[in-house]
Amino acid sequence: GEEEKREREEEERRKKEEEENRSSEDHDNRILKFSERFGMAEKNKGEGNELFKDGNCKFAAERYVKALGHLAKLVHIESTMKEEDFAQAKALKLTCYNNLAQCFLKLEAWSKAADNCSAALELDGANAKALFRRAQALVEQKELEKAAEDCRRCLEVNAGDKAVEKLLEKCERGIKAAEAKQKKMYGKMFG
Fold this sequence. Notes:
By secondary structure, the protein is mostly helical. The chain contains 8 helices and no strands. The chain is about 80% helix and about 0% strand. This is Peptidylprolyl isomerase.
């Protein structure tokens, strides 16, 4: 019914996103064994980490996208994959989405950062890093209600996280200020 339809649409959207995430010059359509394809993805992630440490966020992001491209190609060999292969691939995908989000935060590409966090949260709905980073991106996009919600969810997972508490306070102050401003405006209009 309705639930299945939504899941199908979600799956379609995710596949489309993975397609788009692949770089345009990616013509590697070889059907490789899991260990080879996964190894290539891990290598790209490692390169991304090194580039990120050196402050090269743009190039780091490209490596993470490449890693995700390799992981997306595992779809061709899913029938031969073992359960631990799926778990490893999922964990690496999650890391790449989180790392991409961090790159895009540094590059001030807020919506790309938020989108990659959302992709990570589709894999693990309680991922504290993804929730916090998405909240940071949402604050920059002036989406304070949504950001506050992500902060609260993050604190359910990671109680007492000072950085998250601080961001939540910032959101709540911003929401209050906006409400006060609106009240004042309506007061003038109907006063």
